[in-house]
Known about the structure:
About 35% of the residues lie in helices and about 15% in strands. The protein has about 450 residues and is an alpha+beta fold. Among the domains are: about 10-125, no CATH class; about 250-440, Phosphatidylinositol 3-kinase Catalytic Subunit, Chain A, Domain 5. The protein has a four-stranded antiparallel β-sheet with strand order 3-2-1-4. Strands 5-6-8-7 form a four-stranded antiparallel β-sheet. Strand 5 and strand 6 form a beta hairpin. Helix 6 packs across helix 7 (about 160-170) and helix 8 packs across helix 13. The radius of gyration is 22 Å and the shape is globular. One of its GO terms (cellular component) is cytosol. Belongs to the HipA Ser/Thr kinase family. InterPro entries: HipA-like_C, HipA_N1, HipA_Ser/Thr_kinase. This is Phosphatidylinositol kinase.
Amino acid sequence: MISKLTDHKEAYVWIWLPGETQPVVAGRITQQRGAYVFNYGASYLERDDAIPIYDAELPLRRGLIEPAAGLAMAGCLRDGSPDAWGRRVIINRLMGVNAAETETGDIDELTYLLESGSDRIGALDFQHSAMEYVPRLKAEASYEELLEAAERIEQGVPLTPALDQALNHGTSIGGARPKALIDNGDHKTIAKFSSSTDIYSVVKAEFIAMKLAALCTLDVAPVSMIAAAGKDVLLIERFDRIQSAAGWQRRAMVSALTMLGLDEMMARYASYEDVAEIIRHRFTKPKKTLRELYGRIVFNILCGNTDDHARNHAAFWDGEMLTLTPAYDICPQGRTGNEATQAMLIKGENRMSTLHSCLAAAPDFLLNDTEVKSIIENQLATIASEWNGLCEEAKLTETDRKLFAGRQFLNSYCTEGLGLEHSALLEGFEDARAQLLRSRNG
């Protein structure tokens, strides 16, 4: 296959301002000496309703704005670029299924921005022109056709033009697993597909975890599950879109990775302590938000979601303040042993997936012992009481139920480090775990 690579020198950034259904051009990204610099357009700066794309990185001012030291591009712009799965689809289209890693390294960030779908997460899009907005539209496709397209990508098989256009609509979504954006006119969702490499039902594991998180009173994106071509498809409602009489509005967002001033190469330094500090100073409803985030950390540990990296946390941006988005991508990870670590640091240099880690971090979230124990105990009780019903709703096989209960969900390692002073928590955990194990053996 002949490469379709184009050497892009610039990209224009278009933004949906709060409450608006049509975008306006905000500025331009250009590549200079290995970095991507940004400058706002004069017409945008003159607008009364202009907001900074994210003022910690791109404040409203004239002239070139370089990314912070150590970054190749401002994080708030990079947030709009595709991650592993979207890049894989774009590589397939531009360079062919057999492209070598050395060849794919020739694809720069501007290409990924300009070749990915326009209905991307957040309120930005990237265009060749500053004068006319031309969205990269999707082709209509059924769930079965989208699933077929995803499987072809995984198998290294070329896509038909129609399937390529349909799957390209979802290239701007983050994450590594096969997925697509679904637009039913009055409803927008993200569809996550089973992968050919899955050794257990990853889709059902995420469905159960997301449902349990909501039942634990966490703010979570609503999910549902359907079958297509005999395989599971998880549907997640988009929370970055608002339907109005005039059309769809888009909500600006930034990832926790951007808030922390990090990129993928520095993600291992991402810390919940640092996020908590940002929440105290830059978020709406900081105390409520701190409790919410703390509850998510506890739940991630209890359900075995160790993929809680800083791109899997985000906040809405209204031009002045940040507001935590609903939780998403709560997906229990496979584990062969007991010991596990979270993707983000919890307290100091500690990232161990234990309730002891959570207890140590409580002061950073302005929570006392009574509040923390209440959060943990309520989650344990909810997981135990709702487990059977959700497993039935998900039509979980006996094999997967045995795999999930006590290994991914409520793994015994969660209580590592707890002492006699935590006897009530230990007892509550063991009771909840025993209920899951009984259901597994029943």
